[in-house]
Amino acid sequence: MTPTVARGAPGIEARWTSSAKSGVGTALSARSPLWFTISHGILNEIYYPRLDSACTRDMGLVVTGRGGYFSEEKRDAVHSIEPFEDGVPGYRLTNTASDGAYRIEKRIVTDSKRPVLLQETSFTTLKDLAADYHVYALLAPHLVNAGMGNTAWISHALFSQYTLPFEVAALILTVAVVAAILLTLRRREGVKTQNPGEQVRVRASDRMRIVKMESSQPAVAAQAPDAPAPEKAP
After folding, report:
1. How far apart are CA 76 and CA 63, in angstroms?
2. Mean pLDDT computed over 136-142
3. What is the mean pLDDT of residues 27-33?
4. How far apart are CA 20 and CA 72, in angstroms?
5. CB 59 within 8 A of CB 43
6. What's the CA gap between 4 and 166, in Å, rounded?
7. pLDDT band for position 23 (cuts 50, 70, 90)
8. What is the dihedral of CA 89, 92, 93, 94, to 10 degrees?
9. What is the tens place of the pLDDT at every residue in 90-106?
């Protein structure tokens, strides 16, 4: 049975990240109503579709390696940040592990034509080989300023903003189910099939018939009329 509640639920209460921001950005276009903040070398809140509607708390990377190595760039690295240019709301971030094991470089900017945040990330090993490390993205969502109990927002969006696509998908699935049933039940020549209804209604008299017959002796072969009579011994 698949569990419907995550292990350890509900977990700790929803919290916001640090207020010590090192960068704030948005697109220089009204077609992209999206804002973001940066602190401790990682992306923090993403605000959409309004400046008072935060959708995430933060998003960073976790690095693991051989021998149980574990490092979180937010806590275990030295951070540096600089804008692309003066007046441009895009940033370059460089996070170097405190133990000198790796370096993470990022470029963060907002698309000016659509509400999309772009983050280009590169991971460079300073010790050992790249194959010795694994990098994981750690995202803490806070949909519409709520870090817990976001299940209702999914159903609300599904039956309000995406009603038509949802209904179309349901119609397609219904047609597919009916088509599969019709293909299964169609009659084809040369194919033997079973009829459960006829098998249930069958009676013993339909399967076996007892016939009473008179017993008879085996017939004696008749002698031909022109054949000579057998001679008697003297």
Report:
1. 10
2. 90
3. 89
4. 18
5. yes
6. 23
7. very high
8. -170
9. 999 999 999 999 999 99
CA separation for the pair 150, 6 (Å, rounded): 14
Residue 23: strand pairing partners:
38
Please report which residue ranges of the chain form alpha helices under DSSP H: 151-158, 163-185, 196-201, 204-207
- Decide if pLDDT at 232 tops 70: no
Q: Quick one: pLDDT band at residue 223, thresholds 50, 70, 90?
A: low
Whole-angstrom distance between the N-terminal and C-terminal Cα of the chain? 104
What gap in Å lies between CA 24 and CA 83, rounded to an integer? 10
pTM: 0.59
Residues near 130 by beta carbon (within 8 Å), at least 6 away in sequence: 123
d(CA 40, CA 93): 10
- How far is residue 53's CA from residue 33's CA, in Å, rounded to a whole number? 11
Residues forming beta bridges with residue 47, ordered by sequence position: 35, 54
Distance CA 106, CA 120 (A): 5
Q: Over the stretch 56-101, which tens digit does the pLDDT of each residue have?
A: 999 999 999 999 999 999 999 999 999 999 888 899 999 999 999 9
DSSP string for residues in 124-153: EESSS-GGGEEEEEEEEE-GGG-SS--HHH
